[in-house]
Amino acid sequence: MKKGFVMLLTAVLVLWSLTGVVATGNGNGNQYGHEKGKGNPHKFKLGVEVLLEERKDLIEGKRVGLITNPTGVDQELNSIVDLLYNDEDVELTALYGPEHGVRGSAQAGEYVEYYMDEETGLPVYSLYGETRKPTPEMLEDVDVLLFDIQDVGSRFYTYIYTMAYAMEAAQENNIEFIVLDRPNPIGGEKVEGPVLDPEYASFVGNYPIPLRHGMTVGELAKLFNEEFGIGADLTVVEMNGWERDMYYDETPLDFVMPSPNMPTLETAMVYPGAALMEGTNVSEGRGTTKPFELIGAPFINSTQLAEELNALQLPGVMFRAASFTPLFSKHSGNLSNGIEIHVTDRDAYLPVETGLHIVKTIYDLYPEDVTFRDFFHNLIGNGWVLEAIQNGQSVEEIKAQWQDELDAFKDVRANYLLY
Question: What was the pLDDT predicted at 9?
Fold first, then answer.
């Protein structure tokens, strides 16, 4: 009897533990409770999947031009280029590549010329370099333009301006424009940083939006179209199952590098602030395996910088003294000393504020060694923040100066949220 009871109790405990595993997930940090990309109990669908499964009427009988890159995949990692090209109901006629190209083979800033895609034989037009807006000649065989590219949630990531320029071209040439929506990988709730001053508009910030906008590309397209007078014939194919508080690893999706120096979700998390280092002579970690997480220069004392930053007790982040030798970009081949950013609580972490603290602390410690490029103004979106740093203002004082414009943007932004 006792033996039978023990066996029964054991069986109950095993069943209970298995139920716990199913209920709490599979240990990969994915709240969906299944192996990412292998199942979809919550009916999560990307814009491309909704288009092909439910809204193909938007493109049937039309000549389709596609703006995409390697992130344009479905949940099974099939390229949208191949999905459309092999669909007998779709006439795909041209491809358009943003910075880094359709297949993602170009480094940052590298110009990608016109060529024929090896897989499909279709013409590929570059939208980076000499031609950022599709010309009428590029659109001769197109009735509708599709945009399917993964953004990273920061104002200075160029893909959203490739989208905006293409929307302008579509409007000017009476072509429909469709955005296939994708998640904001760093969540859609937090909005941070100064709103861009139009005087500093560039390809790393073309519209007055903050550094961390908290929007999807579809939402941005609607905002750009209405608030900034593009006036395109725009359709956004929404996702199913995405919620604003989701980070990328809380969806069923596998992370595909949006660009060569954006290898992980962790990179995207620090990018809205750490990328400000691109406007200085301090390395932002390009040429290492952890771009934007590693920051340093030959003149920095790693231990000193880490101690100063950790003493600030910034929310959700710690700093480790680190040294590295970039293989390319700033300080290539030279030992650089600095810090590695470790996000310990991403819900508390404020990347823009953290990035400003890093810039200010390095400048305060090494004012004779740090130099700023004009590009810093384009990245931060104004001319006054750098002046405030150099004049010794605190980050808290700087944040207070941009808060009114940020609050006003949030009010406008609310009109375009889809989720």
Answer: 40
